[in-house]
Structure formats: structure tokens, C-alpha cells
Amino acid sequence: MEVLGIDIGGSGIKGAPVNVKTGEFTQDRLRIVTPQPAKPDPVAEVVAQIVEHFAWKGPVGVTFPGVVVGGVVRTAVNLHDSWEGVDAAKLFGGATVLNDADAAGTAEMTFGKGRGERGTVLMLTFGTGIGSALFVDGTLVPNTELGHLQLHGKDAEHRASDRAREEHELSWEKWAERVEEYLKHVEMLFSPSLIIIGGGVSKKADKFLPHVHLETPVIPAGLENQAGIVGAAQAAAQT
Ligand code: BGC
Fold first, then answer.
1. What is the pLDDT of residue 224?
2. How far apart are CA 10 and CA 30, in angstroms?
């Protein structure tokens, strides 16, 4: 079965048709720059443009960088406040809409490093924010939002996201200290059996993971950037 997956991010909106049995793209991915400000209508226009580009008539899955319950957006801290309360599923023409980290985690658990992993597995994505996806024996607990845990009285993602690394011009080693502190907090709360690091930094894991020491095994994701698109397609295939 083929499903169109679309991944909404703060800088780009990316889409590709996905074979949901293999997790592979069946056509080249299309990326369009996220309109600024990233309000509902302009973002919906880009989503529609991607659907049109692939002349898509079948199911569509869309990721969103915030809390989404039953297709309705509850938070969008890194996109635009006007999203709160918007029925994104309706706005995107009846698409299945879910949190971006939940989508990436779902793909990683099926086709990546989480495949066959039982117990409590956490996928944490480090980018503009920190996204989280919690799996218990392979079942997703959606919208966990662990990027907003408090560290030193601040949102953890303000200290330890990849954006924080860039903004504060931290060396990889210095940033790794912050990541380790954050992961230790998460480890204390969930006692996971595995932590998977996703987002753009997963490609650069050799620069910081050797400096991160935890009881729990911490590994980079296998799917890198396509995970969100694949997970969005998987979610739509299941509905
Ligand atoms: C949002 C999450 C999202 C993460 C990654 C956080 O700021 O609250 O919902 O998964 O960023 O985009």
C-alpha cells in the first residue's frame, strides 16, 4: 500500500509517497520552505501543493511539531500560537495528523533501530525543539512532550536542543554535557531499556554520543531524515 507522508517542520515541509510495507519512498521527496509566519492557512497551502505535486488521490498522513489529539492541535510552541485549537485534520483535507516525534518514532520502531525492541523504548529527536516518542512493548504512548521537562527551572529544549547548541555556540563536548544531564533526568523518570536519538544530529552521533554516559544504552536512529514522512504514512495507513 502506498500513502503520501508529509512532515511539517519549522524550516521545511517535506513529502513523499511511501510504501508502508517496506518504509521506502516510491518517488523523490519534495521539500518546500515553511512559510513565515507559519500560520495555519499558509502552511495548509504548502501541504495542498505537495498533494498536488504528486497528483495524490489516496490517504495522506501529516506530522505536526506540537501536541495533536484527534486531529486537533493543542500546542505549537515552535510554529505559531494561532495553531492552538485548529482542527488540522480538517484543514489538511481529511489527512491523519500526529505529533512529529511520534511519527518518527513509529517509523524507527518498525524499520529502524527500534525494530523488535520490547520494554520501554524512548525515541528523542534533537532539532529546533526536543521531541519524544514513548513505546511500551512496541505500543506508542502519544504526545509525551518530554522536551518540556524542566531543567534548572527552564524548558529542557531551551538548554539541550540542537538549536540551543547552535545559538549558544557550544562545542559538541559542552553540548553533550547538557544532553547527558537531560537524558539522566529522563532515565530516572522512565527506566527505559533503550534510548534512540533522532533528528538531524543522529548523523553526527560520533561527535557527541561518546561523551554521553548513561546506564541505559543510547544509540543513534537508523532512518535519519525520512523517519517523519514514513511515520506519517504509517499512521494514515492504520486509520
Ligand atoms: C514540541 C513537540 C515536538 C518537538 C519537536 C517541541 O517543542 O512541543 O510537540 O515534537 O518540539 O518538533
1. 79
2. 16
